[in-house]
Design a protein that fits this description.
56% helix, flat, 87 residues
């Protein structure tokens, strides 16, 4: 999963969050590079929802996620808040 940012501390927290969620973090450089990541997200949404592919558009992500220990029974929102507070 790509991420971009200008703040080293924030970048590390995001990297840790991505890692703990079971994805492979890939730093994409300064925040100005985020503009290149946004169209990629729109394309994934188009494939997944508008074209009906669902989550099958990202088989590698599903493979990685299967290898990571599943988080305890908590809502995804609660897990994200916890990870942001305690990377």
């Amino acid at each position: 999963m790509f991420y971009a940012g200008d703040n080293a501390e924030a970048n590390e927290r995001v990297r840790a969050l991505i890692d703990r969620l079971g994805f492979r973090p890939q730093f994409a450089g300064p925040l100005k590079h985020a503009r290149y990541l946004e169209p990629m997200a729109a394309l994934n949404i188009a494939f997944g929802y508008a074209l009906g592919a669902g989550v099958n558009i990202a088989p590698e992500w599903r493979q990685i996620n299967k290898q990571v220990e599943k988080p305890r029974k908590t809502s995804k929102r609660a897990l994200v808040y916890e990870l942001l507070a305690n990377p």
